[in-house]
Design brief:
With 420 residues, the chain is an alpha/beta fold. It folds into three domains: 162 residues, 3-Layer(aba) Sandwich (Adenylosuccinate Synthetase, Chain A, domain 1); 89 residues, Orthogonal Bundle (Adenylosuccinate Synthetase, subunit A, domain 2), CATH 1.10.300.10; 157 residues, Adenylosuccinate Synthetase, subunit A, domain 3 (Adenylosuccinate Synthetase, Chain A, domain 3), CATH 3.90.170. It contains 14 helices and 20 strands. The strands form five sheets. A ten-stranded mixed sheet has the order 9-7-5-2-10-1-11-15-19-20, sandwiched between helices. Strands 14, 16, 17 and 18 form a four-stranded mixed sheet that branches. Helix 3 packs across helix 5 and helix 6 packs across helix 8. The longest helix is centred in the middle third of the chain and has 18 residues. The mean pLDDT is 96. The structure holds inosinic acid (IMP). Inosinic acid binds next to helix 5.
Length: 420
């Protein structure tokens, strides 16, 4: 059986924890989009990890971890994660890398800085857009090139040549050399070389053999390059539609499509955010919820749950289950607000606008629900405070999708699994 974990908001929904909880039972975990911009917080047997690239399967013996074709891979980051996890687990992780996944090279980060994208869009400074742009412009370097070193060097040389012409004053680019980059890349890639292959075939075989395959998404639907709040988005397809393309399998049979959303909303970086909270409450949610970026350490902007955005995210993902996370962070909040519609130019609308400037002009229409007093424990929804149970039931009724997982803390045991 196959399961997909998909972010429904602007990333940081807690996908890392949910994937780690479910990866225990999986034979294969496939990360299908993005690169080192992602930050997944995982607590494995009491030790906290902040991973960016390595799929959650790496924590479990016998589980294959696949980095699929739709990803962009920074080998320096991946190698660091492999070394950290290898020192923690007994069995070395089994890593498969799609030969058609692109590599983020040191010059991608430099170009991102030169273009000022971090300032303008609030990017993660991980060279993501320049890598995906090189892919689209057919001047990228792919994981499969690592198996043909002279071809790899020629590709890098060709691109470096172009970049020197585009940025003649950049000392960093001027100082880069294809031969050095080739040596650096091959050294970093050494433990992964054997696992570079046609990952699409490997995934197809696993699905055909009835293995438990878990697809791990990164970022969230509202950051999707096509269906998110463009241009304040990332550069990959973060939704279920992007999954099939990334793994090279049309309409993969994924019966559980779990959309992950927080009990409230956060966003890092620039861009419209209709339900953003007033400063004092945002500050307290940020502190209690530890809402600081795993990749950049930036404070996350905090806001109320937005059902207009969630309906859009559920629809474009075909999500048939919801994992609701960080419910405990709302402990003690007297009244909980949830946005059920927007007002745009005086009219109430239920549709999520696809352009950032239009979304920016939307005012939220709120419903207010009673909060609850602190303290959450137990394995069943019924163990939670009554108002929290009602909040969960209200969300599923409004969205028409069952909440099958409720997470009320970072530890794996702070999770409620509900049968459909
Ligand atoms: P980029 O992906 O670094 O190009 O950044 C583009 C936008 O996506 C910025 O607003 C980032 O903050 C946001 N972003 C990228 N990855 C993540 C993530 O994993 N969580 C939250 N926001 C992200």
């Amino acid at each position: 059986m196959a399961t997909a974990i998909l972010g429904l908001q602007w990333g940081d929904e807690g996908k890392g924890k949910i994937t780690h909880v479910l990866a225990k039972e999986a034979d294969m975990v496939v990360r299908f989009n993005g690169g080192a911009n992602a930050g997944h917080t995982v607590i494995d047997r009491g030790v906290k990890f902040g991973t960016h690239l390595i799929p959650a399967g790496a924590f479990f013996p016998g589980t294959v971890s696949v980095l699929a074709g739709g990803m962009v891979i920074d080998l320096a980051v991946l190698r660091e994660e492999l070394d950290q996890i290898s020192a923690h687990v007994k069995t070395p992780p089994q890593i498969v890398i799609a030969e058609n996944a692109h590599l983020t090279l040191p010059y991608h980060r430099v170009v991102e800085e030169l273009e000022g994208a971090a300032k303008h869009f609030g990017t993660t400074r991980r060279g993501i857009a320049p890598t995906y742009r090189d892919r689209a412009a057919k001047v990228g370097v792919r994981a499969g090139d690592l198996l043909r070193p002279s071809h790899l060097e020629a590709q890098v040389e060709r691109r470096l040549d172009q970049l020197r012409g585009l940025w003649p004053k950049s000392e960093e680019i001027g100082g880069m050399n294809a031969g050095d980059l080739r040596r650096e890349l091959l050294e970093l890639a050494e433990p992964f070389l054997e696992g570079i292959c046609d990952a699409s075939e490997a995934i197809e075989r696993a699905l055909a053999d009835g293995m438990e395959v878990l697809f791990e998404g990164a970022q969230g639907a509202l950051l999707d390059v096509d269906h998110g709040t463009y241009p304040y988005v990332t550069s990959s397809s973060t939704t279920f539609a992007g999954l099939g393309n990334s793994i090279g399998i049309p309409s993969p049979d994924v019966s559980r499509r779990i959309g992950v959303m927080k009990a409230y909303t956060t966003r890092v970086g620039e861009g419209p955010f209709p339900t953003e909270m007033a400063d004092d409450l945002a500050e307290s949610i940020r502190t209690i919820g530890g809402e600081f970026g795993v990749t950049t350490g930036r404070p996350r902007r905090c806001g109320w749950l937005d059902l207009v955005a969630m309906r859009h995210a559920i629809r474009i993902n075909g999500a048939n289950e919801i994992a609701l996370t960080k419910l405990d962070v709302l402990d003690g909040v007297e009244e909980i607000r949830v946005c059920r519609a927007y007002v745009l130019d005086g009219d109430e609308i239920a549709r999520f606008p696809l352009s950032a400037d239009v979304l920016d002009a939307c005012e939220p229409v709120y419903e207010t629900l009673p909060g609850w007093e602190g303290g959450m424990e137990g394995a069943r929804l019924e163990d939670l405070p009554q108002e929290a149970i009602e909040y969960v039931r209200w969300i599923e009724a409004e969205l028409g999708v069952p909440v099958t997982i409720v997470s009320y803390g970072p530890k794996p045991e702070e999770t409620i699994h509900r049968a459909l």
